[in-house]
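Subject: for your reference before the review

Hello V.,

The reviewers asked for a structural picture of the protein, and I figured it would be easier to keep everything in one thread rather than splitting it across files. Below is the amino acid sequence we used in the manuscript, unchanged from the supplementary table.
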Amino acid sequence: MARELLAWEEALAGGGVPDVQVSADRAESPAMAPTAAEASAEPRVGSAERRARLEVLTAEAAACTRCDLHTGRTKSVFARGNPDAELAFVGEGPGYHEDQQGLPFVGKAGQLLDKMIVAMGYGRDDVYVCNVVKCRPPDNRTPLPNETAACLPYLEQQLASIQPKVVVALGRTAAQGLGLIDETTRGWRGAWRTWNGIAVMSTYHPAFLLRSPEMKRPVWEDLQKVMARLGKAPPPKKR
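And here is what came back from the structure prediction:
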């Protein structure tokens, strides 16, 4: 775990790992006791069936013409990572590098996300990573409501197939795309919400952190809440 924490400390630009009382977060959101909504979630299908479903969805997204975003795409960007993951990350939409490679979070923001994932004690490919929209918006702008609505069935079926224990919504747009907040919601970051029986933690997008590195510390606090809920050992306090 030491190397992972050093990687995140480097990503914090020397700010160090925040001294957060994870035990308090456990009291607010127990890792071992599922909520009533979580307990009522649909049971997970088998791994083979899950992967087959996702392959069909990937092909459908690649041929999708439901909104105008398809006219400018090089490749549709469906997902990367482990379909059997207990933890999923949902971002906003693909950028230039993602559009070229057909994979989410492969640019600078993706490199920072990978450091976040590793610092949490996971391998880069142990988690599942996707976006609200599967095609790159022009000039990397925020997806329009009609574009988000057109892509929402893919996202819903992705998460319903995977049934992760926790989803991390990366950025306000992702939280809105999941229907957890609207444009008037304040205090959206750092609070637990539920999507179809799955616990969701909303936090800042890695691209925002690249522009505002001072906000990496509260993101680490949010990720520690996620670790606590998943029963991951909290990192040692920095001396």
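For the response letter, the relevant points are probably these. Confidence is low (pLDDT under 50) at residues 12-41. The chain has one domain: 2-11+46-229.

Happy to draft the paragraph if you're swamped.

O.
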